[in-house]
Amino acid sequence: MASVDVNFISNLPPGPLDAYRKRATFDWKQMKLFFEDAELLKVKMQLWQCLENDPIFERSLVVQPTEDMKRITALQLHNFRRYKILTPKMAKLPYKKKTRLLMTINEALAVTFPDVSVKHALGVDLFKNTLTTLGTERHQHILDAAWNGTALSCLALTEVAHGSNTKKMRTTSTYDKNTQEFVINTPDFQAAKCWVGNLGKSCTLALLFAQLYTNEQCYGLHAFVVPIRDPVTLLPYPGVTIGDMGEKIGLHGIDNGFIMFKDYRIPRENLLNRTADVTPEGEYKSSFSEPGKILAAALENLSAGRVGIMQESSNNLICAVTIAVRYAALRKQFNCKPDDDNETPIIEYQLHQWRLFPYVSAAAVFKIFISAFTNEYLSIVERSTAATKIEDFTAVVSEVHAIVSSSKPLMTWTCRDAVQECREACGGHGFLKSARFGDIRGAVDPTVTYEGDNNVLGQQASNWLLRQWEKVRHSEEDPCSPLGTCTFLKGYEEILGRTFVGTVVQDVLSLSFIHTCYEWLITYIVQETYNKQQSLVSTGKCRTEARNESQVYWASVLTRIYGEYNAFKFYCSQLATTQGSMHTVLEQLGILYGVSNLEKHCSYFYQGRFARTPEFSLLLKEGVLRACAGLKDNVVAIVDALAPPDYVINSVLGKTDGKLYENLQATFLQNPKALTRPEWWQEIVVPGAPDFKKPKCKL
Amino acid sequence: MASVDVNFISNLPPGPLDAYRKRATFDWKQMKLFFEDAELLKVKMQLWQCLENDPIFERSLVVQPTEDMKRITALQLHNFRRYKILTPKMAKLPYKKKTRLLMTINEALAVTFPDVSVKHALGVDLFKNTLTTLGTERHQHILDAAWNGTALSCLALTEVAHGSNTKKMRTTSTYDKNTQEFVINTPDFQAAKCWVGNLGKSCTLALLFAQLYTNEQCYGLHAFVVPIRDPVTLLPYPGVTIGDMGEKIGLHGIDNGFIMFKDYRIPRENLLNRTADVTPEGEYKSSFSEPGKILAAALENLSAGRVGIMQESSNNLICAVTIAVRYAALRKQFNCKPDDDNETPIIEYQLHQWRLFPYVSAAAVFKIFISAFTNEYLSIVERSTAATKIEDFTAVVSEVHAIVSSSKPLMTWTCRDAVQECREACGGHGFLKSARFGDIRGAVDPTVTYEGDNNVLGQQASNWLLRQWEKVRHSEEDPCSPLGTCTFLKGYEEILGRTFVGTVVQDVLSLSFIHTCYEWLITYIVQETYNKQQSLVSTGKCRTEARNESQVYWASVLTRIYGEYNAFKFYCSQLATTQGSMHTVLEQLGILYGVSNLEKHCSYFYQGRFARTPEFSLLLKEGVLRACAGLKDNVVAIVDALAPPDYVINSVLGKTDGKLYENLQATFLQNPKALTRPEWWQEIVVPGAPDFKKPKCKL
Predict the structure, then answer these.
(1) Matching PANTHER family, A to Z (chains A, B) (predicted)?
(2) How far apart (Å, rounded) are the C-alpha atoms in residues A511 and A568?
(3) Could you give the CA distance from residue A92 to residue B357 in angstroms, rounded to a whole number?
(4) Any catalytic annotation for residue A451?
(5) Which of A166, A254, B427, B483 is deepest in the core (most CB within 10 A)?
(6) Distance in angstroms (rounded) separating the CA atoms of residues A411 and A373
(7) B15-33+288-670: which CATH number, 1.20.1290.10, 1.20.140.10, 2.40.40.10, 3.40.50.300?
(8) Measured between beta carbons, which residues in chain B are less than 8 angstroms from residue A247?
(9) How far apart are CA B664 and CA B673, in angstroms?
(10) Do B614 and A614 touch (CB under 8 A)?
């Protein structure tokens, strides 16, 4: 990679972090442009500038009442929709480029104001996507309203008693041919739509998923556009009961709501009828006239939200490690060497490196992975939209779904764990709200159970891998893996015959060794999972039972390692485009990511006889420590390359100027009422309490 | 154990949980009295009754501004101090019994209102303990004020730039013989005392730890009682700058503060002079006249707070698993068998069992462990107070410290992980504030870094074990382990020669097998850690470096497994007092705890050649799943036995009546403003937004 123009990236302020920055063996700005596309980064910077200059986005040092947070977030959303970061010229770009831009704007918003991003994603982006892909020309004017900022929607799918099992949703939409309307009903509270973001207070439209009935027959879940509130008064229409769900434990600015319908009528045309329609006479008609679009729609609806979550996870992960690494370089405690009177920065301690650096490596790998995968994904959607035969794309759609189903759990869980470890690695100061780990946690926590509960969603990935294994092993076919994520399964005989022969730590510290291990591990676990399921079936269990009883230690591990491996593979591909000292450091990051993950799966290597002697476990562990130590002098510069600006990270512990204690002091004192007597002091005075300052009370 | 009177325990309301309750093979009330001492349980119930009847303890469905939470918590503390749960008769009980009662009251308070408990623990209990153990008769009147509720204190130890490394604290207290006063100074902001609970808004006294200087010599950290606020006006005295630290990410009711001193004078007598004093002339004098008391003081100060944290962790863990297990028994999703039209309670899924039941087993084991250990601990403190020779007790004090140093990290981290897993196991509904996981998390999170950061504190346990290993292996002495937690090290030759010979899953499902494995694992890891340190020293590293570089994978694992093993051992001892069907179930819990923990350490067994074939890993994994499945029909009754009443757990998802959806509905509707239009609706109306309900806007 030739060196590129990095002048648009501001220099970092000098300060105590320079001690480590000077030790870096590479140019952090060059590395930043490995992690981020320059043009997309400029778009992000433009949005951040807007936010920083807009008083409504001023951050409060004091936690606001939840009701106020909902109000402010709604107002922030209004302003954000008016920014027009996307110029008219950009809006005319082809699908892939335009969507990538929209995703970039969302990424930049989400890492700064996650609540606003979620409100926008649910109420505008997802709405537009769904109208575009599931709606038809008859919904154009409402799509226009979404584009021009006059309509805000919500996505009403989950019900009180059903989330993952969407087939069991019980809200009904029954066609009445006499009036040519659908009549929507909620049978009982358990069928109330709930957790619907934007619904509690603000939106006027709902994208409702309900069981479509016509001529007394049920045709399953379909999507309807449902006006729910009068846009002038914001009062719900008669027949609709809307409630706000109240307090949550994060994302406080989002007004999650529940909704119940009682004989609520909407016009026939409100059915999104791209894939199926009901005629005025009440006849149900599937339409398969545009297979490519249906397929693209399916893919888009399945994956777009999850791809967004993955992007956001990678950014949140970056924020967390940035704060913790900078703090670790500045915080000193104890002496490494007792004869030295200077205390040692905690980043020098092996244990501290081991707690943080694998997450730094995951941040780097995930950032590259999700960026490259997003490009791949958007290309596929773009191509499939133009497809005339479904068959051409079913295979790649399945594989994309498998990748997403493993990566979304992997990335959100890794981010969850990293945020906690980073908060602890900053000690008590990490518990300050101004450290920002609490807010990040509040935004990350729900991602592990929404848009497909991680444990449930992950089963889609293992099921796909098991199907490929069946092809390879039992039908003697090639795996159906157009993206190549499991073509290696063909070579299962050679792979399963591999054993560990290393004797020194260098033997485990290479990308090719990691690659070899992952191939073996995935092949071994897919084989054993398959065999376990077959053996359960042979004892009389049904397929569902067999699947359920092979999740723990098997299918769910398969999903995990497949996700780890995909991220690793994408990262290695991009790595090949770099050179010089930056390449060396990026390679070290990839190696640390690989060995630290493999070490956690160590027992499987013994179980499957890949390893037969103590060396494998010993060398992997030693390898992780070596890889950590090898990154130590570069890690501050690595987070400089990964991190968004201070304004975005917004942590008193993780500022680029490195003035940790000055910043802490300022934050303490800026806190309103920091130094004042509480207004309620008289309520807590204890009558007759002795004043030990007075001579007669002298101790 | 003969059956005991269980009539004082209320029956549980009938409801949907009965389906599982009826399958239980034991009497849950009998089991409750295995987990809790009947008399102590009655004391708890009495406090809970008081709290439930006191309007100040009414819980708000709406999050209050932090300032209000601090106010309410301060008022709650006032009321709590007036309850007098401890009768005058109880107050005259001997040390052990009285302290056990005080601890029980704290446990009951902490699990219900953690913020009040922390304020009380810091401001009253710890203050009284420290005055009693480090003070002398000249501090009696201030001790009286703490007892009669007219003084509230705080503990000022941590500084902005120093936490774990207490020796580096920089606040000074310099004796001025001219006035017979100490002059306290804070050299700069980095030396400001911080994170001091009660300091931000409310307390009038501080227990200050500062470097004592007299005659221009520093004698190290000493404790002083320092009046900081006028008890009548609650204004800080001149010379003292007090600030509130502002927003945190949990424990919002606690007013953590920072404090800086400028030439602030306190009388000479304010030094707590049990162990050392400064004469009026300025001479520093150590006093070793009462060695037992000094020892007891050391022990008390080191461990009492941590023992309290462990008790609280075990209760928080119980609350978390209770909510998640009850929810799992009620929530249905998908069908286990496709031909069955009834959905399956998620507790029936193997993956869900595996996610929750090991934490249920940990809750049971920890509850018993900490209860039994507390008794042991209090007996030792009681006996050591009366001791005349330090030597008699140094060994046991060291061992107690090692146990606490491993158990506090183990229990707090396990609780942290359990709360998160339980929140996720309740899906989206777990993200409701009313589910209570958020509040539990907010109370649990700081415990992993306060009262000794887990990673730092844990090193005390491994260091102690390494010293014992050195005795055994290199000095041919017995380990110095009066409590018997590592006497088995004597038999290291036999232990290290053990290998796994099991062939069927029953081979790993016994308490004795688990015991055998832990002995091997601890011995192997202590040996390897020791050898690693020696080898680092032999390459020229100093002892400190050698220790630092043997933490990851070695010393820190040693601490972890030693903690696990101690809990297991205490549990097994208590188990021996039970019989019948209850014994069987409790044994299954102990086995699940053991195998699920051992499975996580699997690679070490291969590394150390205890296991040489795939069976060990396979059977351990299979064992965990069998142990989970074996508990499934009893687990609802087990949590009934462990759980405090609904009022205490306070979760909409975990009520004893099992009316999950009715309770959710009620909570949604009780939420103020649930159904009303927001007061700020006009601010978010979009001018010109089309009304798609009107005919002209028809889609």
Answers:
(1) ACYL-COENZYME A OXIDASE (PTHR10909:SF223), ELECTRON TRANSPORT OXIDOREDUCTASE (PTHR10909)
(2) 9
(3) 55
(4) yes
(5) A254
(6) 13
(7) 1.20.140.10
(8) 61-63, 432-434, 671
(9) 16
(10) no
**Distance set, CA A335 to CA A338, A340, A342, B529 (Å):** 6, 7, 7, 21
- Cβ contacts of A581 within 8 Å, gap of 6 or more: A25, A26
> Whole-angstrom Cα distance, residue B593 to residue B276?
46
Quick check: A288 pLDDT over 80?
no
**Residue B51: alpha-carbon gap to chain centroid:** 22
CA pair distance A443, A278, nearest whole angstrom: 40
Residue ranges of the annotated binding site of B for FAD are 158, 197
Using an 8 Å Cβ cutoff, are B427 and B386 in contact?
A: no
CATH of domain A295-491+520-559+634-671: 1.20.140.10
Per residue in B130-183, pLDDT (tens digit) is 898 889 999 999 999 998 899 999 999 999 999 888 888 999 999 999 999 999
Chains A and B form CB pairs within 8 A to the count of 416
Residue found under tokens 């008083």: A55
* Closest to A123 (Cα-Cα) out of A222, A196, A231, A224: A196
Residue B119 near chain A (CB below 8 Å): no
Task: Note whether B671 contacts A245, CB cutoff 8 Å.
Answer: yes
Q: Which residues of A touch B164 (CB under 8 A)?
A: 333-334, 427
Q: Flag whether residue B144 sits within 8 Å of chain A, measured between CB atoms.
A: no
Domain B155-286 superfamily per CATH? Butyryl-CoA Dehydrogenase, subunit A, domain 2 (2.40.110.10)
Judged by CB atoms closer than 8 Å, whether chains meet at B150 and A689 is answered as yes
Entry pTM: 0.97
Position B98 pLDDT exceeds 50: yes
Q: Where are the beta strands (DSSP E) in A254-396?
A: 257-261, 264-267, 276-278, 284-286
The tens digit of pLDDT for each residue in B474-531 reads: 888 999 999 999 999 999 999 999 999 999 999 999 999 999 999 999 999 999 999 9
Chain B residue closest in CA terms to A202? B684
Residue A437: partners with Cβ closer than 8 Å, 6 or more residues away: A320, A323, A419, A422, A423, A426, A430, A431, A651, B249
Distance CA A405, CA A464 (A): 10
